[in-house]
Amino acid sequence: MATRVKLLAITSIVAALSFIECADVPNLNQACFRCLCHVYTNCMSSDNCFGDYCGPFTISKVYWNEAGKITLPGDDPASDNAWRECATDYNCAQKIVKGYLQKFAKDCNNDGEINCFDYMMINSNGGYNCTPPLDRTETGRMWLERYEECHTKLNLLN
């Protein structure tokens, strides 16, 4: 019985930690990062680049620049490959996404709150004009479908 109680307590702690938000970006938590990753790459291409887009969040060099040129420890932002190396490392890529969202976070769908759905719209449409509906293109519809899959699976609030 004691083992079961300990296991339940550990499970509860892990679940709570997975929903801790980034303090300066509202509603950005590990579940949201997981859904953003799922939307763009099914979280399966962290070591790959496709054209000018790299890693689990399909980060471009322009996105990386806008996010503040975040690098892996010891890497030089002036290095030609610094953005690729960070973008293909899941933890570093999360920091790039967080930096970008710190700069551009806003209510893209005008529902009165800033949440993971807005972050998907920012990442999909770009930070300067996140409001166009995603269902206007085939790729956008695929992203919406993937977001709904993840949203439902992880029981995100939005």
TrEMBL record:
- From the UniProt annotation, give the residues forming the signal peptide: 1-22
What keywords are assigned to this protein? Antimicrobial, Bacteriolytic enzyme, Disulfide bond, Glycosidase, Hydrolase, Signal
Question: What cystine linkages occur within this chain?
Answer: 32-116, 37-43, 86-92
One protein family per Pfam: Destabilase
Annotated protein name in UniProt: lysozyme
Give a yes or no for keyword Lipoprotein in this entry.
no
Source organism, top-level taxon: Eukaryota
Q: What processes does the entry annotate via GO biological process terms?
A: defense response to bacterium; killing of cells of another organism
Q: What is a single molecular function from GO for this protein?
A: lysozyme activity
Q: Name the EC number(s).
A: 3.2.1.17
Q: Which reaction does it catalyse?
A: Hydrolysis of (1->4)-beta-linkages between N-acetylmuramic acid and N-acetyl-D-glucosamine residues in a peptidoglycan and between N-acetyl-D-glucosamine residues in chitodextrins
Cited InterPro entries: Invert_lysozyme (IPR008597)
Q: Does the keyword Disulfide bond apply?
A: yes
